[in-house]
Amino acid sequence: MIENRPWLTFASHATLLVGIGLVALPVWMALVASTHPASAFGAGHIPLWFGDAGGQTWGNVLFEKAGNGVDTPVFWMMLNSLIMALGITFGKIAISLLSAYAIVFFRFPFRNLCFWIIFMTLMLPVEVRIVPTYEVIANLGLLNSYTGLTLPLIASATATFLFRQCFLSMPGELVEAARIDGAGPWRFFFDILLPLSRTNIAALFVILFIYGWNQYLWPLLITTDDAYYTLVMSIKRMLSVTDGDIAWNQIMATTLLAMLPPVAVVIGMQKLFVKGLVDSEK
């Protein structure tokens, strides 16, 4: 029998409320700041309630220009970020699924060595390989392009490792049954492995989408054309103002818009995401 402890219940709920408040306070302040004119922040104070300039600020940010230093509207940069995030996500999942499938279910020389070589790339930080990667992309003429934004980031040793572990946990009888039924490698992959890996794919989709959406360093290096700016890097450019005041209202509006797609993905795929992390469909 579970003992009822009112003080413990109160303490746990109070802790949760404090945590929610700490998370919600910056979002609230950003939302309030986006409704005030830029001049309201010149005196060094932060308003705590809504102003009357929200409609104009959000309209300018979305459809005219994001702010000082960025002449591209936010909706266009959101599209660029979405293309990059989805390209990275689908590319990583597709390549990792196929590589893990080959390593687990095919017998070829040095297959374990191939896996460990892939796994060892996790020890190479992005900063170590970003200069040679930039040189390759520049020599291929892929600067200021969607291909240049996504192609160098579509391989994932982490996803390959996770799919390999998922495939290793599947019973060997599946392979034998598929072989008896006359299923070839591709039919086994599409009709058996993919459905059984659905929750794992969903969990990785959420993680990789957020990873792709939040990319900052790589887009900053290869994009000089405003038409290919991503939303995250534009916020930094809006802060780098050499003359004039920083338009905090526009920056806060842009920041809130940058939060929406990752939050929507997490909420929309919450059940599959949690199930993919703590459970498996076998």
UniProtKB/TrEMBL annotation:
Recorded topology in the membrane: Multi-pass membrane protein
GO terms, biological process: transmembrane transport
Gene Ontology CC annotations of this record: plasma membrane
Signal peptide coordinates: none
Name the record gives this protein: sn-glycerol-3-phosphate transport system permease protein UgpE
Gene name as annotated: ugpE
Assembly and interaction partners: The complex is composed of two ATP-binding proteins (UgpC), two transmembrane proteins (UgpA and UgpE) and a solute-binding protein (UgpB).
Role according to the record: Part of the ABC transporter complex UgpBAEC involved in sn-glycerol-3-phosphate (G3P) import. Probably responsible for the translocation of the substrate across the membrane.
Superkingdom in the source lineage: Bacteria
Organism for this UniProt entry: Marinomonas algarum
A Pfam short name: BPD_transp_1
Family statement: Belongs to the binding-protein-dependent transport system permease family.
Lineage: Bacteria, Pseudomonadati, Pseudomonadota, Gammaproteobacteria, Oceanospirillales
InterPro entries linked: MetI-like, MetI-like_sf
Places the protein is found: Cell inner membrane; Cell membrane
Transmembrane segments: 7-31, 82-106, 113-134, 146-167, 246-267
Keywords per UniProt: Cell inner membrane, Cell membrane, Membrane, Transmembrane, Transmembrane helix, Transport
NCBIfam families, A to Z: PRK10973.1
SUPFAM superfamilies: MetI-like
Domain ABC transmembrane type-1: 78-269
PANTHER family reported in the protein's UniProt record: ABC TRANSPORTER PERMEASE PROTEIN MG189-RELATED-RELATED, SN-GLYCEROL-3-PHOSPHATE TRANSPORT SYSTEM PERMEASE PROTEIN UGPE
